[in-house]
Backbone:
């Protein structure tokens, strides 16, 4: 089980999606959410839960 994507995961703690190539986050939603640090239980981005 060698997951290179694992180290490229979204920097958002509550997100489990792989980060975009040129970003620490998987998308703008996570980047925004990380900035405002909204209280949240889980990832709210629209990425499918895979992996
Ligand atoms: Zn996500
Ligand atoms: Zn994310």
Residues:
């Amino acid at each position: 089980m060698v997951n290179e994507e694992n180290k490229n995961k979204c920097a958002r703690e509550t997100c489990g999606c792989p980060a975009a190539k040129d970003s620490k986050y998987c998308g703008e939603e996570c980047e925004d959410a990380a900035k405002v640090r909204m209280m949240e239980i889980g990832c709210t981005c629209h990425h499918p839960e895979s992996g």
